[in-house]
Amino acid sequence: xxxxxxxxxxxxxxxxxxxxxxxxxxxxxxxxxxxxxxxxxxxxxxxxxxxxxxxxxxxxxxxxxxxxxxxxxxxxxxxxxxxxxxxxxxxxxxxxxxxxxxxxxxxxxxxxxxxxxxxxxxxxxxxxxxxxxxxxxxxxxxxxxxxxxxxxxxxxxxxxxxxxxxxxxxxxxxxxxxxxxxxxxxxxxxxxxxxxxxxxxxxxxxxxxxxxxxxxxxxxxxxxxxxxxxxxxxxxxxxxxxxxxxxxxxxxxxxxxxxxxxxxxxxxxxxxxxxxxxxxxxxxxxxxxxxxxxxxxxxxxxxxxxxxxxxxxxxxxx
Length: 318
Fold this sequence. Notes:
Elements: E1 9-13, H1 23-33, E2 73-84, E3 87-94, E4 100-101, E5 107-112, E6 119-124, E7 134-135, E8 138-143, H2 149-154, E9 162-169, E10 181-187, H3 192-205, E11 211-218, H4 227-235, E12 241-247, E13 259-261, E14 278-284, H5 286-298, E15 306-313
Parallel strand pairs: 10-11, 10-14, 11-12, 12-13, 14-15
Antiparallel strand pairs: 1-15, 2-3, 2-9, 3-8, 4-7, 5-6, 5-9
């Protein structure tokens, strides 16, 4: 996620009881991820949008995670693309060919070489999937930060380059038991984990009235990540799903009915949220999260009903 990103975004997840049911599974995934991983060589190549072949497994390994910082996993860059003026998408796969197992909403850490040694930066896994599945190819997105150590490194990657990773991590996960209403609010690359959640939410909503509102906060139309996918998600069940897109700097020439000027938190009073039935997710810009969490708290939301994950920019090394 990207929202943010390394381009240097550090994750500052806050505890959430709603995601506690996933804790044991996360710890198991991290333990499994350490197996079979090894350190990668360096290598620097420029960005391009052509694709490298998926690494062929030599012994059909089982799906696993991405290792730990002590025993990181080696990933190969399969493809790269700019999906917004300042946002890079990286397609990645384990070099050993094993599928990557993670939960929708997880993030991973990538090792970034720097003048004072290696640093780690966190990125949401944006690849859509259902809980319990695995993917041979995963996507992460990174937003450019001027002067950012990770920006310079990641935006120069080419297919065939290798990275070291650890994970998956995070508490921005769907609970074991659904509420009546999900609020998914994000800014910039903070929308990436919600994209990953869409197939799981659709599966859970089959045959029942599960209400979902996605609220996107972006600077301009060019920065509206995955807008078509979120609109498609809403269009498949418009009775129970809504989308709002807030543009802080530049509106489309002809705004659609789901688009408005301003910041995402300014729309909270008009959503009809009830603390007893709503589980709110906030992801992305720390200022947005603090403002939205403050409003939700004043409206009667207990902390356990607000899941937060902040993306913090780091413009310099370290």
